[in-house]
Amino acid sequence: MCEILILSSKNTSTISQYLHCQTIFLWHNNLLLSFTQAEFLAFQKITTQFEFDVHSLPFPDNVKRLVIQLPKHQVGFAFTDEEWDDLLIVIRESLLMQEVYAAMR
Predict the structure, then answer these.
(1) How far apart are CA 84 and CA 79, in angstroms?
(2) What pairing do the DSSP bridges indicate for beta strands 4-10 and 24-28?
(3) Distance between CA 14 and CA 102 in Å, rounded?
(4) pTM of the entire structure?
(5) Which one-letter DSSP state was computed for residue 23?
(6) Which of 7, 40, 61, 87 is most open to solvent, judged by the fewest CB atoms within 10 Å of its CB?
(7) Residues paired with residue 34 on neighbouring β-strands, in sequence order
(8) Where are the extended beta strands (E) located within 1-105?
(9) Per-block average pLDDT, block size 10, for the chain (105 residues)?
(10) Interior/surface letters 38-74, b for 16+ CB within 10 angstroms, e for the rest
């Protein structure tokens, strides 16, 4: 079994990486996405294009959420303001931790 390294975790968002195959996983609430390194970097770049106050919408429960549509248009991520902030933090921390682990090898 491949060893899993937790790169960053905050509240409902966790990013981990399988060390052997280098697959990166983003776990948010009950959704799990997998990325290659290039896909993860592209996802990170996409997240920098959104500002919660500008792009969020009210949902039926009267809570504003920012929606990121995934390449499979049937699936989208919906983030509250706090969840969005947490996601941006774990992405940044994950990229930094990848650099730290690469320097240690």
Answers:
(1) 5
(2) unpaired
(3) 20
(4) 0.89
(5) -
(6) 61
(7) 25
(8) 4-10, 13-18, 24-28, 31-35, 57-58, 64-69, 76-79
(9) 89 94 92 94 94 97 94 84 97 95 85
(10) eebeebeeebeeeebeeebeeeeeeeebbebeeeeee
